[in-house]
Hints:
Elements: E1 3-7, E2 10-13, E3 18-25, E4 33-39, E5 46-51, E6 57-59, E7 67-72, E8 77-82, E9 91-98, E10 102-104, E11 108-113
Parallel strand pairs: 2-11
Antiparallel strand pairs: 1-3, 3-8, 4-5, 4-9, 5-6, 7-8, 9-10, 9-11
Amino acid sequence: QVQLVESGGGLVQAGGSLRLSCTTSGFTFATSRMAWYRQAPGKEREFVAEIDDSGRTYYADAVRGRFFISRDNTKNIVYLRMTMLTLEDTAVYFCTAHLNRDYWGQGTQVIVSS
């Protein structure tokens, strides 16, 4: 079955960096669109970044130039490199696979402190 497991979250100071990983199984990763979303406390889940099977990337305005999505098709992992983190980046970050429907991981918490 499709599985997505996020990791790499944690506590980081403002201005710092983190790299999130999403390890996947149960589907053909190399031909799948993958994305990251996040949900801050009291807010709706929002789009962060996407990468298609050709490696094209798309970003939300709030993170463009600071966050970078990439994929390793040999390991079936999608990454989110986050730099210049701000307090507003505090959220639970979710990985999703756009297949016949969207599949979601359980999320990984990122807390940015001042």
